[in-house]
Amino acid sequence: MCGRTCRTFYDQRPRRVRDISCGDRRVYLELSVRRVDCPRCGGVKRERLDWLADNPLYTKRFAFYVGRRCRESTVQAIAEELHLEWHTVKELDKQYMREQLRRAGCPAPRVIGIDEIAVGRGHRYRIVVSDLERGRPIWFGGKDRSEASLDEFYAWLGPKKCRKIRLAVMDMWKAFRNSTLKEGHAPQARIIYDKFHIMKHLGAAMDEVRRREYVRLSGQRRRFIKGQRYHLLSRWENLTVEGKQALKLLFRANKRLNKAYLLKESFGQLWHYNRPGWARRFFKNWKDALKWQRLEPFRKFAAMIEAHWDGIEAYCHVENKTALGFVEALNNNIRVLQRRAYGYRDEEYFRLKILTCMLPKL
Fold first, then answer.
1. 135 Rama class: left (phi>0) / alpha (psi -120 to 50) / beta
2. In 187-318, which residue ranges form alpha helices assigned H by DSSP?
3. What confidence score (pLDDT) does residue 3 get?
4. pLDDT of residue 339
5. Cβ(283)–Cβ(298) under 8 Å?
6. Which of 199, 201, 194, 203 is nearest to 315 (CA)?
7. What does the radius of gyration of the chain's CA atoms come to, in whole angstroms?
8. Measured torsion, CA atoms of residues 85, 91, 93, 94, in degrees rounded to the nearest 10
9. Contact 35/56 with Cβ under 8 angstroms?
């Protein structure tokens, strides 16, 4: 196993290894595995066969077949289908994913996306960092979503590659910003706040207005608001005909919700500007429209945007237009992985699943 080439062998022993099935028939290969008396190590070692998996009872192409199947189904289902132990399937899948990462190469990102995911009950988080240009996650780790946890990513990437980072897309969590701008990390990077997290805050403000209006009214006047939460949080073009008719009826009965919905719908225009000055003028007009409207949740949202304007303005430059939707798409894929497995007890296995979920099949 030390890699030394020997001309003679010590002895040989028969072995049977499993290969890819042919139809409904399992296929096994019988071979003789030689052992050598290594002069360098001073011990008897088994010869290395590149076409065998890490588990020497299976071929590498069988391991890769198992890995491809595990991308689409659960470990338990594959184990039952191939008549294997659950732990054997998991270990073969690990080998497949490690080979995927090896072929993908070492990351050297210029545009990164940073987000946290929940990995269990009790507010347990891990951080996922993605290369937005190549469209793949590159790091999963940390013990929570703190500044120290993200420091681990920059230490893993190394100062030379950190200096190449041009943009960092994240939510408005202060710990992520502080870690990124530390000396020795990526202080040269422009911070861009993810529009999907910002729109999520706007949706929460819209829902708070709906709840306040429901509490303010009484009797029959509540019937127009009841059951309209989904419609109020949806984009107008995504609503069905029945949904649009229900909102039109609500807006005729409640002018405050009508104004709030129009403001929510119009805010998305902010992301289409290519010059910071135009974006600033739009936001000023949008904020001025809140005057005398008694929309306190929207005023709080506007104050939050004002406090984080630098990270929003950065996206208005043409050279900073990057795929902000990748981080949200990755989160959806991770949630699918978690639901499929009903959670992961083996965090290393979960890490490999996340890092390879966007990589092509082998």
1. left
2. 195-216, 229-233, 241-253, 255-267, 276-288, 296-307, 309-313
3. 63
4. 85
5. no
6. 194
7. 28
8. 160
9. no
- Tell me how far apart the alpha carbons of residues 184 and 186 are, in angstroms, rounded to a whole number: 7
State the Cα–Cα distance between residues 111 and 168, nearest whole angstrom: 6
186 pLDDT band (50/70/90 cuts)? Answer: very high
Q: Which residue, 175, 176, 156, is CA-closest to 108? A: 156
Question: Residue 79 has which token pair?
Answer: 């184990």
Q: Which residues contact 29 (CB under 8 A, 6 or more apart)?
A: 16, 17, 18, 19, 59
Q: What's the rounded Cα separation, in Å, for the pair 322 and 207?
A: 29
How confident is the model over 145-155, as pLDDT tens digits? 999 999 999 99
- CA atoms of 225 and 259, how far apart (whole Å): 14
- The token duo for 160 is 């030379």
Of residues 225, 174, 177, 171, the one with CA closest to residue 200: 171
pLDDT at 304 > cutoff 80: yes
Short-list 110, 168, 150, 115, CA closest to 314 = 168
Closest CA to 131 of 102, 169, 103, 159: 169
Q: What is the pTM of this model?
A: 0.85
Tokens at residue 131, please?
Answer: 């290369």
In whole angstroms, what is the distance from residue 103 CA to residue 97 CA? 10
The residue type of 41 is: C
Express each pLDDT in 203-259 by its tens digit. 999 999 999 999 988 888 888 898 899 999 999 999 999 999 999 999 999 999 999
CA nearest neighbour of 166 among 205, 91, 108, 126: 108
